[in-house]
Design goal:
With 41 residues, the protein is an all-alpha fold.
């Protein structure tokens, strides 16, 4: 497993990663308001 300090992403804005993570977390909830199957690809 790669630790966060070892992983490097270039060309991806931090705000995009934050939004993507929020979408994944919402999709995984059993009581989610919206489901986004595309985010799990």
């Amino acid at each position: 497993m790669i630790s966060p300090s070892e992983s490097k992403l270039t060309g991806v804005p931090r705000t995009m990663l934050m939004t993507t993570r929020a979408r994944v977390e919402e999709h995984q909830r059993s009581d989610a308001i919206f489901h986004d199957p595309k985010i799990m690809e």
